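User: Please fill in residues for this 505-position structure.
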């Protein structure tokens, strides 16, 4: 039967044409699919090749002695070159003012002509242009900020792309400051940029926060640094020199946008970076007066957190050698890409309102100076009673503790709570252990002073202090005999933690 069908095909001209058409169709279809697959592979190859190969010498980035990236930032496309040329002309005034005002129309009607003018004439410095800083810079440029100095030593990496405001795959391996300038020039070509591909440290603050070339002093500084030493140096310098500054606290490991607040640094809570920053600033005499963006979100089971380095990493030697710079981060901090953007936009929002004069009011500082004075007076009384109990004359006794010290111990060391009960009201400070009989120094004629130090103090409620004074300071018991293991361990942990900060005071 099959031979009969084949004979019919051979003898039928129409069937031969049909068979030829089917075969041709299959051949063309295969060719099209093959071409599409080849094009797809070519596009993937192009995409991969556009990402710098870190194995090649020309793409290896080194850090110079000043903290800047030793890399050519001139890689550009013709589109980049056209945008740069347009920006250069716009900054020289060769750009229609009506077009600028049209682009800024929504901000103009919100801030008023006078407010927008102030913003357009402003000089703002942004230190750190990663996830937070890049969004702050982009928002300020889009809103009309006239002069932006951006400072960052780092380069765009693939992992930066989940949170950076403008970086693309083509920017991977290039300095963040030049990536940001190049992209923002395509949006607001009239904005003046001063790019500093440098690491910010205390010794370079004067040069990096210096006036613009025309003598214009910075109207505002934005701290978007994630290195604690640099952050504290920047904030302390600005506070000392009366430069307006706003700081972004930790956005890492945060996920709840309803817990993001803007307020005085003294109100920031539940954030390790904020707590560490506050403690170091207190050591430099700065306890409040700096606005910060922070999250009050608490950690919980199942939430992201920064885990300790593994034993294997510690076994390799000094963990400091794992970082890109000394004392710099050596672990990958879990970051949800949306949270740095929220922090950055909050920072930019504050700067715009403050510069333009738009009404704004946030969480005020705690203003607990009266409470600290009361705690200091209570501690003075306790020392006098203990001195009298140990047969030493308490008349004229002085203690080397100030109200600033009281605030530091209560707020930063003991988190504003009693170490015994965890209560946060009617707080007081007292010695943890009974002093030796000769704790009053009378070596200077006419002066008596207690040898009490910050490291000796614990925070309790007033009622708990009365009991502690009776049993420990005047009695014969030790804290270990009075309190359970959990309380003693907590005190030891807090005292050990405070010792790490002692050299900074």
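Assistant: Residues filled in for all 505 positions:
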């Amino acid at each position: 039967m099959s031979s009969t069908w084949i004979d019919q095909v051979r003898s039928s001209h129409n069937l031969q044409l049909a068979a030829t058409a089917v075969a041709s169709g299959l051949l063309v279809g295969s060719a099209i699919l093959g071409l599409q697959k080849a094009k797809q592979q070519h596009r993937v190859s192009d995409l991969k090749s556009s990402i710098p190969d870190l194995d090649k010498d020309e793409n290896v980035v080194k850090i110079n002695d000043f903290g800047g990236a030793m890399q050519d930032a001139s890689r550009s496309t013709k589109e980049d070159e056209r945008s740069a040329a347009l920006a250069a002309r716009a900054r020289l005034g060769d750009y229609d003012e009506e077009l600028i005002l049209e682009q800024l129309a929504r901000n103009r009607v919100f801030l008023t002509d006078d407010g927008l003018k102030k913003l357009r004439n402003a000089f703002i410095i942004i230190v750190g242009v990663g996830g937070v800083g890049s969004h702050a810079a982009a928002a300020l440029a889009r809103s009309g900020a006239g002069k932006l100095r951006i400072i960052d030593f780092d380069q765009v990496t693939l992992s930066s792309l989940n949170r950076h405001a403008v970086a693309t795959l083509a920017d991977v391996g290039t300095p963040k400051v030049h990536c940001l300038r190049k992209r923002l020039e395509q949006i607001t070509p009239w904005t003046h940029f001063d790019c500093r591909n440098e690491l910010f440290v205390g010794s370079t603050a004067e040069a990096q926060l210096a006036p613009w070339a025309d003598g214009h002093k910075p109207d505002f500084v934005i701290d978007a640094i994630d290195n604690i030493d640099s952050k504290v140096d920047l904030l302390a310098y600005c506070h000392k020199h009366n430069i307006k500054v706003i700081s972004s606290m930790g956005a890492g490991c945060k996920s709840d946008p309803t817990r993001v607040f803007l307020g005085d640094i003294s109100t920031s809570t539940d954030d390790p970076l904020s707590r560490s920053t506050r403690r170091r600033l207190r050591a430099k005499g700065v306890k409040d007066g700096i606005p910060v963006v922070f999250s009050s979100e608490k950690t919980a089971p199942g939430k992201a957190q920064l885990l300790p380095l593994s034993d294997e990493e510690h076994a390799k030697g000094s963990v400091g050698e794992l970082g890109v710079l000394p004392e710099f981060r050596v672990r990958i901090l879990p970051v949800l890409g949306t949270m740095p953007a929220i922090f950055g936009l909050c920072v930019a929002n504050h700067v715009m309102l403050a510069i333009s004069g738009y009404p704004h009011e946030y969480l005020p500082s705690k203003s607990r100076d009266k409470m600290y004075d009361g705690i200091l007076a209570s501690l003075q009384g306790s020392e006098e009673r203990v001195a009298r109990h140990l047969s030493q004359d308490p008349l004229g006794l002085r203690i080397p503790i100030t109200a600033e010290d009281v605030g530091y111990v209560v707020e930063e060391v003991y988190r504003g709570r009693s170490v015994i009960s965890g209560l946060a009201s009617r707080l007081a400070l007292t010695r943890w252990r009974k002093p030796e009989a000769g704790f009053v120094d009378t070596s200077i004629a006419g002066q008596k002073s207690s040898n009490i130090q910050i490291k000796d103090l614990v925070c309790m409620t007033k009622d708990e202090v009365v009991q502690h004074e009776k049993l420990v300071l005047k009695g014969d018991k030790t804290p270990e005999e009075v309190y359970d293991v959990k309380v003693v361990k907590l005190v030891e942990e807090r005292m050990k933690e405070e010792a790490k900060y002692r050299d900074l005071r």
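For context: The chain has 17 helices and twelve strands.
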